[in-house]
Amino acid sequence: MSEAPRTARGERTRRALLDAAESVFAEHGYADASIVRITERAGVGQGTFYLYFDSKLEIFEELVDDLNRRVRHAMTERATEGMTRIEREREGFRGFFRFTAEHPALYRVVREAEFVSPRSLKLHYSRIVEGYIEGLGTARDRGEVGDIDPTVAAWALMGIGEMIGMRWVLWGADGAAGADADPLASGTSELPDEVFEQMMRFIENALQARPGEGPSEGEGS
Questions:
Q1: What CATH architecture is 56-207?
Q2: Which architecture, in CATH terms, is 8-54?
Q3: pLDDT for 56-92, tens place per residue?
Q4: Terminus of the chain with fewer CB atoms < 10 Å: N or C?
């Protein structure tokens, strides 16, 4: 693996290569993407590429990791200590859908990782779900949500976000995939408010504590 850049200029070049890779992998898929296409999109020479990455596979795996870091930041940046679990869910989903609208390549890149780099795919989902499990477990102990299995709930919520985002953000309001000439999906848009509210209503009903369910023993007193 190539060493991390040591200068601000090096960081900018590395960022340009990752941004170019995001577009190229989304437009052409892993098989038809090439280092030449990536460097041309980034505006650098092929020799420069190898100062930062050893291969097409390495930049692909780094791109998955980079998208993962950024989407997790988008999901947590507006959360505050005083929020309830449901309020955190609302902010987290809003951040996720906003990021998806700005980076629709996330969908294609992550799906390709299943075949190109299964390890990267597992890391992507595992890193997102780890914080989810911890947060839901704490909320359950405080009585903010019902007596749920945090692991099952975390994976279910992640699935909801991914499918809702694909249907309304990636495909657009009419539900049709983008034109063949537009692999980034010409329908990409913000999630409609009414869809978001219906989704949150479903999630709130699923997570809410039922009569007789309270904080775990020793908690919340």
A1: Orthogonal Bundle (1.10)
A2: Orthogonal Bundle (1.10)
A3: 999 999 999 999 999 999 999 988 888 999 999 999 9
A4: C
